[in-house]
From TrEMBL:
Gene3D superfamilies (alphabetical): 2.60.120.230, Copper type II, ascorbate-dependent monooxygenase, N-terminal domain
Lineage, opening ranks: Eukaryota, Metazoa, Ecdysozoa, Nematoda, Chromadorea
The UniProt record lists the keyword Cell wall biogenesis/degradation: no
Protein name: Peptidylglycine monooxygenase
Matching Pfam families: Cu2_monoox_C
Organism of this sequence: Nippostrongylus brasiliensis
């Protein structure tokens, strides 16, 4: 089957789940902005499986005090046969924002052992300080779990970093990609 993007223009992931994960309830006064000048004009549900799951969306036309956003860190690469490898990615926050992470999610296919994400800040001595956002075995239900360090704040110039540990017991090279025969290394953070 030929694959195509979900939308003609860029996409924004608001929410994702897998492996019998429980629901996500946003904190009081927090919502995802859609419609209007938000840049998100449509909500598209893209199921990868045939089961009886469902999604309930609650909406309001009343602006919420805080706006949520989901950031996604993804790696590429090849996983050689009969090896355990780390795949890493990072990005610097260039926008003048203040983010308060409250949930994270990990995702990998069957070769995933652990996925973790950090906020990296520079202290007054010019040294990097790493603060764990969260880590989880991606073979467990792939839910948005609460961030334990609720005082964590991300500012302009900080870096978000993620690492996946993947184990390949097969005799073939496995590439990162969208199918079940491929592998993925994804770390999601909602703030």
């Amino acid at each position: 089957m030929r694959r195509a993007p979900t939308c003609k223009s860029s996409t924004s992931i608001l929410y994702a789940w897998a492996k019998d994960a429980p629901e996500l309830i946003l904190p009081k006064g927090v919502g995802f902005r859609v419609g209007g000048d938000s840049g998100i004009n449509y909500l598209v549900m893209q199921p990868d499986h045939l089961d009886h799951s469902g999604v309930t969306l609650y909406h309001t036309e009343t602006p919420q005090p805080k706006s949520a956003a989901t950031m996604l860190l993804v790696t590429g690469g090849l996983l050689p046969p009969k090896t355990t490898e780390s795949f890493e990615t990072a990005c610097v926050i260039e926008e003048d924002v203040e983010l308060h992470p409250f949930a994270f999610r990990t995702h990998a296919h069957r070769h995933g052992v652990e996925v973790a994400g950090w906020v990296v800040t520079e202290n007054q001595k010019g040294e990097d300080e790493w603060f764990l956002v969260g880590k989880r075995d991606p073979q467990l239900p792939q839910m948005f779990a609460p961030v334990k360090n609720t005082s964590l704040v991300v500012h302009q110039g900080d870096m978000l970093a993620a690492r996946c540990i993947l184990k390949n017991n097969e005799d073939r090279v496995i590439k990162m990609g969208p199918t079940g025969e491929d592998e993925m290394c994804n770390f999601y953070m909602i703030s």
